[in-house]
Amino acid sequence: RAKEQGGGRMEIYAADMHARVVGRLELQAQLRQALADGDFTLEYQPVVDLESSQVTAVEALVRWRRGGESVMPEEFIGPAEESGLIVPLGEWILREACEKVAVWRAADWDIELSVNLSVKQILSPRFVETVAGALEDSGLPARVLTLEVDEEVLLEDPGEAVERLSALRRLGVRLAIDDFGMGYASLAHLRELRVDTIKIDPSFIRDLGTDGTVTLLTHTIIRLGQDLGVQVVAEGIERPEQLEKLRSMGCGHGQGFLVARPMAAEGMEALVGGAGLPL
Ligand code: C2E
Ligand code: MG
Ligand code: MG
Ligand code: MG
What we know:
alpha/beta; 12 helices; 20% strand; binds ligand C2E; binds magnesium ion; Diguanylate cyclase (GGDEF)-like protein/PAS domain S-box-containing protein
């Protein structure tokens, strides 16, 4: 019998894999249902000008309200990409965020918007029209919208991705490279994509001031941004020393729990209504 012949292990693997596939499919079905039921929501994290401490933009971050809990994107963006749901979900995110920020701007709040994109979205048919539609319907000016992509956008189908991103730029929207510094070919990508913003990966900020190499690299990225005329945003600022170090290095913008955590739209409205930031 299989077990006595050492096949037992294989059966366990097969059962485990089966359970995982079923779990994945169930999750994907739940995600589809959640989109239909309106169970996704957006939080907004302020991006500040480090010199003036003014909030200049917000980054939209998606959450899934499942029962009483708020599920973080790490748990569902991957599965949403695999199932293709990221395309309609991404469109919902874009439209929701554009509408919200357009309302804030109409209330005389001079603020910009950043939205994360997944590669699958960018390469999907009619993506450029989707962005154009979200802008048109919300009335948000294209120049106020930054689309964040990570370097992996150039791995799957670099020619097509560059083509799409150029078409997006022609709409007038801006592009940011997210998690900059993690990919091995970051500098080459900068030239190819002609981005407006680089967002320094939090792993650099974490060791800022304590690790000499990381500190030097961070300083180099900031100077590179200055030389190229590209906006630099430091991500993951959690401690006052990090903020001070970044300021002393001339880093233009920052984002992180020290400045403000991601919050629901109402939280942002309270902030602008006078609560202010602790800087
Ligand atoms: P990201 O685009 O790099 O977003 C920044 C992440 O860092 C957010 O996590 C934010 O909550 C977190 N963060 C901000 N400041 C700090 C800090 O000081 N310390 C720490 N430890 N974390 C900080 P979140 O919301 O869980 O999102 C994780 C990732 O999921 C995002 O990374 C992005 O790649 C993806 N994601 C989020 N929302 C969307 C979306 O609407 N569409 C797509 N395609 N991806 C999204
Ligand atoms: Mg981002
Ligand atoms: Mg990202
Ligand atoms: Mg990032």
